[in-house]
Amino acid sequence: MTTLQPLAAAVTSEPAAAHAATGITAYAWLLVALPALGAAVLLLGGRRTDKWGPLFAVAMSWSAFVVGFIVWIAMLGRDGESRAMHLDLYNWVPAGSFQLNAGMLVDQLSVTFVLLITFVGSLIHVYSLGYMEHDPDKRRFFAYLNLFVAAMLLLVLADSYLLLYVGWEGVGLASYLLIGFWNYNPAYATAANKAFVVNRVGDFGLSVAIMIMFAAFGTVTFAGVQEASGGAGSGVLTAIGLMLLLGACGKSAQFPLQSWLGDAMAGPTPVSALIHAATMVTAGVYLIVRSNFIFEGAPNAQLVVVIVGAITLLFGAIVGCAKDDIKKALAASTMSQIGYMMLAAGLGPVGYAFAIFHLVTHGFFKAGMFLGAGSVMHGMNDQVDMRRFGGLSGAMKITWATFGLGWLAILGVPPFSGFWSKDKIIEAAFIGEGWRPWVFGGAALIGAGITAFYMSRLFFMTFHGKKRWTDDVHPHESPLLMTVPMMVLAVGSALLGLVLSIGGTFSSWLEPVVGGHAEGEHPVLPVPVLITLTLLLVAGGVALAWLRYWRDSVPETAPTGSLLTRAARRDLYQDDVNEAVFMRPGIHLTRALVFADNRGIDGGVGGLAALIGGTSSRLRKLQNGFARSYALTMLAGVVAILGAVWVIQ
Amino acid sequence: MTAALPAALPAAFKAADFDYGAIAPMLIVAGGAVIGVLFEAFLPRRLRHTAQTALSLVTLVAAFVVLVTVSAQESHRGFTLARAVAIDGPALFLQGTILAMSILGILTMAEKFGGKGADAFTPMGAAIPGSAHEAAALRAGLSTSDVFPLALFSVLGMMLFPAANDLLIMFVALEVLSLPLYLMSGLARRRRLLSQEASLKYFLLGAFSSAFFLFGAALLYGYAGSIYLPDIAAAVTTANGQLEGLLIPGVVLVLVGLLFKVGAVPFHSWTPDVYQGAPTPVTGFMAACTKVAAFGAILRFVYVGAEANRWDWRLGVIAVAVLTMVVGAILSVTQTDVKRLLAYSSIAHAGFILVAVMSFDRTGVAGTMFYLAAYGFTTIAAFAVVSMVRQGGSEASHLSQWAGLGRTHPVVAGVFSFLLLAFAGIPLTSGFAAKYAAFAPAISFGGRAGVWMVVIGVIASVVTAFVYVRLIVLMYFTDPPVGEPVVAEVASPFTTAAITVGALVTLVLGVLPAQVLDLAEQSSQFIAK
């Protein structure tokens, strides 16, 4: 420790890269403050704000977007190296030699997130106006949405791990509140609890990582840790990296902490779109990319990131093939897509930009598809079983078209968005030496094929084939308030990838933050071969899905299925494993503790209380109200004290 | 006998030195009290309540302002009035505390609750309870406005008590502060018999304890040949082994007289009866201010006069401290009357303060003084709240009447709960900072006995915390009693101000105790020569 002290003292200075914020960027705190104000007004205002509250929340969200947009434009006006700016807010933790300012780091990476969160978030706010129209509690819903946006923006704008942790917990809270929004349904309340508990495991990892940083480096700011990590041993960095990864796994539903995401679909669909598809669940990827300086020094931790990503992308894809609940299938797909991002983030500088790129395009097309699913549910009496859908393309044309564009995007069909981002990740996964490119690249490649199968299955089962509707439904297109956001997102799904990848725009935009793609690194297979292989697998997946779910009739109740299908339906027994390994021993331990507590501790405490009460009742009799007895007590006391003192002498 | 006389006797007669500046606050209070008596004699009846209230407040505020001014000047520190009075850090700190608290005390005594006179006091103290005479006084709308000058006289005695540098002045101060309190205890408007009984008990037992004090003082004079505390200390250090038999009993008996005033076990028996019977504002005033004054006197006697031979007598006081904490805590468990409950709580608190006293270090003095300030403000506010909660016009002091108060009067119950948490010593209240300030010196300087006292003190705190929390639970989670509703009267700005200030001090001393702690530490040096 002693050798680290001068180091810690040296790193408290500002990083050279981030200049003090000037101009509009100095108002970046408004990004967090505006939605936070919205949440505060709606929550504190209570029922009085019922009428105008939701509109106010929407306005706050859009204002945050406008501020973010202006900050972005101002940033574009500066040249690459001076784009990152640092905004000091106030002295947050003045603890003796440890000083921590609350500040915001406004750089290319955080602005990318700000734009994604505020734009998609605001669209979903608008969509929710239609979706939640008849909910008696919609004010509370919008308050939570605003709270989420504020916390998420704080997460990505924080300049230190500690402030990031505040936002991290904030989004966790918002997610918990929104999953359990309809908590009168016990299953939904349980789902919220499950998400919360699993996230605690991850949050624990993040907090341990912060503690290690504090112990080893004496600082928790990004700039300070970056500087200190240059001279730190790989053991410390590996420990920090693995703990950060644990945090990322919890928040981003990565293996082995992925079990909560499927149940989280209990929340209203706009929540699934915003929090559990586009933004919050990608916070783990953000954390890994933001901490690139730590993973650069810890190749082992990096390898674990890649492994986790690869396992999750296959895991999610397999689970997605068996789900009949449209939202759960989409949730499995989200898990799988974030697996891709994790995998890219674990590859190092070759992958960071593509991880974020895929994150952005995914934010658009997945949010769009979730909104589409919400629109379908809206028209189908809130049913989610795809076996009772089918042939909806006729009844819901806009939903079909927008969903279709998202479907093409996630498949990676050129020239739609997903092609530009996912294909790059597959290419990057094939870079390297030895067994790694073959294993990880192979996983990514196979994953693309399975993705094509299950997404097509979902699309065909819902919109094509025979109508398998229940008798009481009358599918109809949703109102404009809902379809317009879907259309906007669909445009993004279609074009964003192409626009951002022309001339490597996005990679060079992020380069000052995450480092560049070194020249001379080529995949083990030629790029055109990889693209062809990918597209062939995708085509195969689509064809298989077409055969089974469009041409053939789909049974209205799920058949027993093969062993793998049954396993996938049960999330590959993840819950059963958790139950057997953690829950049951935990319950037994709790029961034993309760028993010990009741018999031992409560018995002791109760006995003690009874003893004191009994003594009290007996002593009370001395207080009989007679002045003569009181005087006698005093006299006895005096004699006793004098006697005692005399004896001691 | 003359051989034992030290050289401290004055060589020749000379006029006593009067530092009028240093004793100005006491003179102001004395003057205010005398004018109050004249008001009572010459002012028309309808003006008296207002005039007396205003006079008392002006007097106390003026005395406080002068005290703050005087304390800023080093030149006024030292002995005055022929060494009978010592104006030093502890004296000034405690006098200031007493003045500030008695302002709040006067505010609560002036509460009328819409009546013609002060609500807490009988219209005519001399009338036999239940007699036609009393009924006539009530119809005539008489009021007992003489409590205000009485209170001022009492404050004068309290201010003199911790500044008394010789045993005679200490005794005079003791009586000046006690006699008005005996009277005021018997003036409750309701439950007159209980009140008069309390008054008589307090008087009888107080006289009894004064006898102990005097006896002890006489023994000490016999030992040292002087009644000045510094001289007694000098006699102890230069002792040649003669007359040892007078010293220890003398110290013990003087301490008994003082410990009676703070309600330490086994000299506590008067406390619950008097606290219950006395008018509630008087209870609050005496619980807070008497404790400050009496502990001030104990501190001066112990630290200036009897410190050198503390090993001979400290075990007796340690036993008293332990007994006080344990008995106060245990007996509070079975109380059913809120005023008696607070009385036992005050006994337990006296034990906690004794722990700090017995550390024999400057930080112990500071801890004691901080504890007194913190506890006093909380106590006055708590009794003021008690005086507001009523059923059918009279105070609802039985605990069962407090059930459900949190639902019907959330603000009043909330404030009271906060004050109870402060009594329990929960962090972010002054009670926590005070317990810390009192126990830390005992751990550091009190030796093994100090550590054991703190352990017992913490256990006793847990027991009392149970009592307070049970009361909070009763207020919030139990249904209100059936029958006539229990209401919290709408108090005048006076009582409201007293409660607000008391609760605010409780909060501020809990959140930011540093400044007052610093002040107490700077003021913790006694002058002894």
UniProtKB/TrEMBL annotation, chain A:
Recorded superkingdom: Bacteria
GO biological process, one term: electron transport coupled proton transport
UniProt KW keywords: Membrane, Transmembrane, Transmembrane helix
Residue ranges of the TM segments: 28-45, 52-75, 109-129, 141-158, 164-184, 204-225, 231-250, 271-289, 301-322, 329-347, 353-377, 398-418, 438-460, 480-504, 524-547, 630-648
GO CC entries: endomembrane system; membrane
All residue ranges annotated as the NADH:quinone oxidoreductase/Mrp antiporter transmembrane domain in the record: 158-440
InterPro entries per UniProt: NADHpl_OxRdtase_5_subgr (IPR018393), ND/Mrp_TM (IPR001750), NU5C-like (IPR003945), Proton_antipo_N (IPR001516)
Pfam families found in the cross-reference section: Proton_antipo_M (PF00361), Proton_antipo_N (PF00662)
GO molecular function, one term: NADH dehydrogenase (ubiquinone) activity
Name this protein carries in UniProt: NADH-quinone oxidoreductase subunit L
Lineage, opening ranks: Bacteria, Bacillati, Actinomycetota, Actinomycetes, Micrococcales
Automatic annotation (TrEMBL), chain B:
Protein name: NADH-quinone oxidoreductase subunit N
Molecular function terms from GO: NADH dehydrogenase (quinone) (non-electrogenic) activity; NADH dehydrogenase (ubiquinone) activity; quinone binding
Role according to the record: NDH-1 shuttles electrons from NADH, via FMN and iron-sulfur (Fe-S) centers, to quinones in the respiratory chain. The immediate electron acceptor for the enzyme in this species is believed to be a menaquinone. Couples the redox reaction to proton translocation (for every two electrons transferred, four hydrogen ions are translocated across the cytoplasmic membrane), and thus conserves the redox energy in a proton gradient.
Source organism of this protein record: Knoellia koreensis
Pfam families xref list: Proton_antipo_M
Domain spans labelled NADH:quinone oxidoreductase/Mrp antiporter transmembrane: 164-464
GO biological process, one term: ATP synthesis coupled electron transport
Mitochondrion is among the record's keywords: no
Topology term for the membrane: Multi-pass membrane protein
Domain of life: Bacteria
Keyword terms of this UniProt record: Cell membrane, Membrane, NAD, Oxidoreductase, Quinone, Translocase, Transmembrane, Transmembrane helix, Transport
Entry's EC annotation: 7.1.1.-
Enzyme class: translocase
